[in-house]
Amino acid sequence: MNIIKSFEDYKNSINLVLSMVTNKQLKSVIKLIELTVKNKGKICIVGNGGSSSIASHVSVDFAKVA
User: Fold this and answer.
1) Are 44 and 56 in contact (CB under 8 A)?
2) What is the pTM of this model?
3) Which CA distances in Å does 54 have to 28, 48, 50, 57?
4) pLDDT digits over 17-36, tens only?
5) Distance, CA of 37 to CA of 66 (rounded, Å)
């Protein structure tokens, strides 16, 4: 197993996905989050397996910032 190649492949896959997110989409998500917070709504962040730890961490970050 080539760790460097695996890391490069993983990094490239993340970069590809991020490159497909437009500024318009990002602004739309920010606006939706702001509106949800303003209206005292709920933002649900979910994950399965290892992703549940990431979801938990993101929810704590939101709680600290928002």
Assistant:
1) no
2) 0.69
3) 23, 9, 7, 5
4) 999 999 999 999 999 999 99
5) 8
